[in-house]
Specification:
heterodimer; A: about 325 residues; mainly alpha; MetI-like fold; B: about 675 residues; alpha/beta; Rossmann fold; 3 domains; 6-stranded mixed β-sheet; 26 helices; 20 strands; globular
């Protein structure tokens, strides 16, 4: 049919101008049933929300987030102001008290060295939280920078940076940290652990950032911005990075928990922080031989570690749900 | 056709195939509130009929169709009314019972050919799946009651075996036997007849009785013809049938194509494969949900023409969901117009379109860009305004040559390197044209014609391989930093995708303010004032300033994009498919806005589009492109009234409903 003209006389028109079959008669709905709306009117029923505001609204309603947030705030207060929770010195140990029972001012009893378990658990929070937070900051800064450069510029820069990333990716975080820390056994600063973890931990963030920057830079608004006169660097900072941030935040929150565990593991293995620094990992290490005699000495630092890590991982999950509603499981 | 058979056919067609009465569908939101998507909608489909449901996005047209198929997504639920297929109630059927009905009695041709084929399976396997799931007999045709009535009229069917298909193994023998029979009967021009047979006797698609009929028509005596057909048409196997189905859907060289993967197919070929799958089990009702809206017009026309012939011969009824009034008018006998989840008007399609009664239908008919429509504002009227404004524009810019042509494209060529291939791909091949000041030049072409590449080169986003673009007499490739910034200020783009061209992190205020900021224009206070003016210019309330793109509709975002482009008082706007993603009514409004802006500020437009109907509404001159080459260049009226090239004629022909006169009352 190249000729679409249909005149009432033509043969083709027969079916068109046939009497309508039952159920297909001409029907016009009353106008008041569906009043005409203005074409394309702005819906002003709800207040304006940016992606961050709506994420925050979603977060506030998430019980997982509220629970995790309360825990994290509490842990941070403990880490900053341990004196508020205990008057005992965690490093004052008296062998007379070795494995002593719990009493009024020593609610969790004493360990083998005669140190107060409760105060050691409280003071240990500072070490764990500092290592976790500092490592995360360095990892996000370094990994984010390298990933963003690689993803945004592509080409040989990407190839070079990606190969370097691959090399680091091949080394497991813990194994790398153990080997590295062997060289600094004498130092007692927490920075050596932070750097060791950051050195092998930035890779993950770099990969995530690279991927999400590559995705964001191909979005049309970047072309639009270039055509408006914007420079590539301006596009990177004003458009690409803000749009690539969400997955990085999620990974950073979740891995904060992982770094705390790694620090504990390193201290447990004896390559992390020296025994003079109060840390959960170190305490778990010394308490392991007492598992059968007095398991509670092992239990309290382990529980503190588990709760802290859980809090950060739950937070990561809640943030992920809020930033990417599609990933919600229900 | 005799009178008696006509009656028979009428009788078969008299019983409604699908009866939807007072259908209501609700969805539940995250918060548990019910949202009514379809309410109290009724429509009827008769066997063999094409019925179109027309409406804008969100009108409930697709939801109604999915409710009929029992495939409502997510929380969707039929909350009232009835859906009857062959008089059998479908509402409340278990999903298991529905599985028996889908495929065999109802088929679906989905909207998006790109995502509806599984990329890891061969096309043939996916057709096979449809045949197997419904336990189809691959050796013989299954006919609807209507087509039985039709075919009975022409050839008396003796046995079920007369519906057997030609098999690939026996086809050469059949052709040889047919040739012998023709020679024996002493028929003239045997070779010519054989050539037709070669073409029409498709394995897995042509049946024994049709073969016999063809032979009889060619002049072979009845008995001989039937003997040949009976001896050499003994049924096809699975592979033959798959090839036959694909061939029916219009895929050339179907047997080879069946072994290919979806990525080796173009969009049109994929849609043909989906049609083959939808029709594989010979359903009585085929639901086609915007089956061609992702395709070029010429491809759309071919596919729909083919589908029409196919469903006519099979007696399949088609429920056709579309947003395109012209298409609906051209294809369907009966038309159902939906708005806000309700049927606002229905009836014989031509009658509804020529005498629309509901205000919404009237509005739709008025906005439909068909061939009958004219330039929204006459060029003369605009030209006068433009001249006075242009003086204002060029003040203080004496350094720039003031020529009649603001942009000139001179022998522009762009080559791309294809991955894994030696030779370069010529996306744009020696294209020259120029845009006159204060007028609109439209570049029309189908996907892959190179029109967007031209736009990107004019915008200085891509460098041409050879040739040059001049802006006010200066070669834009020589522009460096400062000149380039000045060029950017005067030539602004509006892109196709209203969802992608605005940064979702930016509020509307920041988006519109961005160009002012980049070019360091004004202080904070004056920028706020300018953004207010711009919003007013694109007819949006000031209150949207604090909103974010995700809170606005596609049309509103496109207005924002236009406001952003206008922020720097440009001389040229390059609109790359700027209205293609919008509903007709919204599209009409945006086009009017663009026209008004041109009249007010003497803008020049380079308007890239695939839609010729839109061109007539906005353009003064048209450049038609095909495969990177310029095919035709003339004024809009010339191109529409006296197209010179065949390709342009094809394009014009393919505009759906282009020659129908709509809205006679208004």
């Amino acid at each position: 049919m190249t000729d679409n003209t249909i005149s009432p006389e033509s043969a083709e028109a027969e079916e068109f101008f046939m009497d309508p079959l039952p159920g297909q008669e001409r029907f016009v709905a009353p106008v008041d049933e569906t009043p005409l709306k203005a074409v394309d009117s702005v819906d002003e029923s709800e207040p304006a929300t940016s992606m961050w505001t709506s994420a925050w609204i979603a977060l506030r309603k998430n019980p997982l987030f509220i629970f995790a947030a309360i825990l994290i705030v509490f842990i941070i207060i403990v880490a900053l102001f341990p004196q508020l929770f205990t008057h005992n010195d965690p490093t004052y140990c008296n062998l007379d008290n070795s494995l002593g029972k719990a009493s009024g001012s020593h609610p969790l009893g004493f360990d083998q060295q005669g140190c107060d378990v409760y105060s050691r658990v409280i003071y240990g929070a500072r070490t764990s939280v500092s290592v976790g937070v500092l490592t995360t900051i360095i990892v996000v800064a370094v990994g984010g920078f390298i990933g963003a450069i690689a993803g945004f510029f592509g080409g040989w820069i990407d190839s070079l940076l990606s190969r370097i990333t691959d090399v680091f990716f091949a080394i497991p975080l813990l194994l790398g940290a153990i080997v590295l820390l062997q060289m600094f056994r004498t130092s007692d600063s927490i920075w050596k652990v932070v750097f060791a973890l950051a050195l092998f931990g930035w890779v993950q963030v770099a990969r995530i950032t690279r991927g999400s920057v590559m995705e964001a830079k191909n979005l049309e608004f970047n072309t639009a911005s270039t055509a408006l006169g914007s420079t590539p660097m301006r596009n990177l900072f004003r458009h690409v990075l803000p749009n690539a941030l969400a997955p990085v935040i999620v990974v950073a929150t979740t891995s904060l928990g992982t770094y705390i565990v790694s620090e504990a593991t390193l201290s447990f293995l004896g390559v992390g922080l020296p025994s003079t620094t109060v840390s959960w990992g170190g305490d778990i290490s010394t308490a392991q031989s007492l598992l059968r005699i007095n398991p509670s000495v092992l239990f309290y630092p382990s529980a503190a570690l588990a709760i802290t890590v859980l809090a950060f991982i739950m937070m990561g999950d809640a943030v992920k749900d809020a930033l990417d509603p599609k990933s919600r499981t229900e | 056709m005799s009178n008696e058979t006509n009656k028979q056919v009428q009788q078969a067609a008299q019983e409604p195939l699908l009866e939807v009465k007072d259908l209501s569908v609700q969805f539940t939101t995250d918060k548990g509130h019910p949202i009514t998507a379809v309410s109290d909608s009724s429509f009827t489909v008769y066997p063999g009929q094409w019925v179109a449901i027309v409406g804008e996005s969100g009108s409930g047209k697709s939801t109604s169709a999915m409710a009929v198929l029992g495939l409502l997504p997510g929380t969707g639920k039929v909350v009232g009314g009835s859906i009857k297929l062959h008089g059998e109630e479908l509402v409340g059927k278990s999903s298991k019972d529905y599985e028996k009905i889908r495929g065999v009695q109802m088929g679906l041709v989905p909207q998006d050919p790109m995502s509806n084929l599984n990329p890891v399976w061969r096309i043939g396997t996916q057709v096979k799946e449809a045949l197997k799931a419904n336990n189809m007999d691959v050796s013989r045709e299954k006919r609807s009651s209507l087509s039985k009535a039709l075919s009975d009229a022409e050839v008396k069917l003796k046995t079920r075996d007369d519906e057997l298909f030609i098999g690939s193994q026996e086809r050469p023998e059949l052709l040889a036997a047919a040739k012998a029979a023709l020679q024996k009967a002493g028929v003239a021009s045997v070779d010519e007849k054989m050539a037709t047979f070669e073409e029409t006797w498709v394995t897995g698609s042509q049946t024994r009785w049709l073969v016999a009929q063809d032979l009889i028509k060619a002049g072979v005596p009845d008995d001989d013809a039937w003997a040949v057909a009976k001896a050499h048409v003994t049924g096809s196997n699975m592979d033959d049938r798959i090839a036959g189905l694909l061939a029916e859907a219009g895929l050339p060289d179907a047997a080879t194509r069946a072994r290919q993967y979806p990525h080796e197919f173009s969009g049109g070929m994929r849609q043909r494969a989906l049609i083959a799958i939808g029709l594989a089990s010979r359903p009585d009702l085929l639901i086609a949900d915007e089956p061609t809206s992702a395709l070029d017009v010429t491809v759309q026309k071919k596919i729909l023409d083919h589908l029409h012939t196919l469903t006519d011969s099979l007696g399949t009824a088609v429920l056709f969901i579309t947003h395109d009034l012209g298409l609906a008018a051209e294809r369907a006998q009966h038309l159902v117009v939906m708005y806000q989840g309700r049927v606002v008007e229905s009836g014989p399609s031509l009658e509804v379109l020529q005498h629309p009664q509901h205000p919404y239908t009237k509005r739709l008919v008025n906005a439909a860009p068909s061939l009958a429509s004219q330039r929204i504002i006459s060029a003369k009227e605009r030209g006068v305004d433009a001249e006075s404004l242009m003086e204002h524009h060029t003040k203080g810019e004496e350094t720039l040559e003031h020529s009649e042509h603001i942009i000139t494209v001179d022998h522009l060529t762009k080559e791309f390197k294809l991955p894994r291939k030696r030779e370069m791909f010529k996306a744009v091949d020696d294209v020259s044209f120029s845009v006159k000041r204060g007028t609109t030049l439209a570049i029309v072409g189908e996907s892959g014609s190179g029109k967007s590449t031209v736009a990107n080169m004019v915008l200085h986003l891509l460098d041409p391989t050879s040739g040059k673009v001049t802006f006010e007499g200066r070669d834009i490739s020589t522009f460096k930093s400062k000149d380039l910034l000045a060029f950017r200020r005067r030539v602004q783009p509006v892109f196709q995708n209203p969802y992608g061209s605005l940064d979702p992190m930016y509020s509307i205020y920041r988006s519109i303010e961005e160009p002012l900021r980049i070019h360091g224009i004004g202080d904070r206070k004056s920028r706020v004032k300018r953004v207010r003016e711009l919003l007013d210019m694109v007819e949006l309330p000031e209150s949207v300033m604090g909103r974010y793109p995700n809170e606005l509709s596609g049309g509103q975002r496109q207005r924002i994009a236009i406001a952003r482009a206008m922020a720097l008082n440009p001389d040229v706007i390059i609109a790359d498919e700027a209205v293609s993603a919008l509903d007709v009514l919204v599209q009409d409004e945006v086009l009017r806005l663009l026209n008004d802006l041109q009249a007010e500020s003497g803008l020049s437009y380079l308007f890239i589009t695939h839609d010729l109907a839109v061109v007539r509404q906005i353009a003064d001159e048209v450049v038609v492109m095909q495969h990177g080459r310029l095919v035709e260049h003339a004024t809009t009226d010339e191109v529409f009234d006296h197209p010179k090239r065949q390709y342009t004629k094809d394009l014009l022909d393919a505009i759906p409903g282009g020659k129908l006169q709509l809205g006679l009352d208004s």
